[in-house]
């Protein structure tokens, strides 16, 4: 584990300069940019300008995450969006897990975005909410980590080995806020969902599909991967479909 405030190797933000089409790629809860770097690199190979920010409190030490709020994470992605706007005329947002939640949040707040692509996004996590309610009544600060839900053997996600209890409350709040406003999303949406996911129930993707107001919406089910699909057997399928989606809209 890295020292407090020191970014772990592989967890650094990434930025690939390209054309006027920008893509914000957001990693997930307790994870790092390592989980979405391949995705970002594939997008960049198409000539897009790609930015993968490191969410506040992530990629350093769990105590840093304990001190972070969902508002901090929103600020991180809003800052990333502003950075892309400086260079690009067309903007798409995508993210894995809580990164997908944040992508949906941005879509709710910024209707001028050209499209959103949530990947195993969380908008309804009742078991996690119940766990938080129970744990918050105790002195427990950390619980076991949730990283590396990956089907492909020998592949590991760079993520915290333990999860701050306080942070669980933060992601629950973020999902609730985002879920309430899904109907505000009217832009083109591509939902990518693993058929088997041990972290975020696939029901979330169906809920998103049904709640958004977009006329252009589609969902692709990934049959050979678990939650961290961007590192799993279907990572090329995720990238290829995202690229096709972006090209069709520009």
Automatic annotation (TrEMBL):
Annotated TM spans: none
Name of protein: Carboxylesterase
Site (Important for substrate specificity): 146
MF term (GO), any: carboxylic ester hydrolase activity
Catalytic residues in the record: 97 (nucleophile), 197 (charge relay system), 227 (charge relay system)
Signal peptide coordinates: none
Binding annotation for substrate: 29, 98
InterPro entries associated with the record: AB_hydrolase_fold (IPR029058), Esterase_lipase (IPR012354), Hydrolase_4 (IPR022742), MAG_DAG_Lipase (IPR051044)
Top-level lineage group: Bacteria
Pfam families: Hydrolase_4 (PF12146)
Residues of the Serine aminopeptidase S33 domain: 23-233
């Amino acid at each position: 584990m890295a020292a407090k405030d020191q970014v772990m190797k592989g967890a650094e933000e990434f930025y690939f300069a390209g054309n006027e089409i920008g893509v914000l790629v957001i990693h997930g809860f307790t994870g790092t940019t390592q989980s979405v770097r391949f995705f970002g690199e594939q997008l960049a190979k198409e000539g897009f300008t790609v930015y993968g920010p490191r969410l506040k409190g992530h990629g350093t030490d769990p105590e840093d995450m304990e001190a972070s709020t969902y508002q901090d994470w929103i600020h991180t992605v809003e800052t990333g969006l502003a950075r892309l706007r400086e260079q690009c005329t067309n903007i798409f947002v995508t993210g894995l897990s809580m990164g997908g939640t944040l992508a949906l949040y941005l879509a709710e707040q910024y209707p001028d975005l050209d499209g959103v692509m949530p990947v195993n996004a969380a908008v309804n996590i009742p078991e996690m909410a119940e766990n938080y309610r129970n744990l918050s009544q105790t002195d427990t600060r950390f619980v076991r980590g949730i990283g590396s839900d990956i089907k492909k053997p020998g592949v590991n996600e760079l993520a915290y080995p333990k999860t701050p209890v306080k942070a669980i409350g933060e992601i629950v709040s973020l999902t609730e806020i985002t879920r309430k406003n899904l109907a505000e999303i009217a832009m083109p949406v591509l939902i990518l969902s693993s058929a088997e996911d041990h972290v975020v129930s696939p029901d979330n993707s169906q809920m998103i599909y049904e709640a958004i107001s977009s006329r252009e919406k589609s969902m692709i089910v990934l049959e050979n991967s678990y939650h961290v699909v961007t590192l799993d057997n279907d990572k090329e399928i995720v990238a290829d479909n995202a690229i096709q989606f972006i090209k069709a809209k520009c």
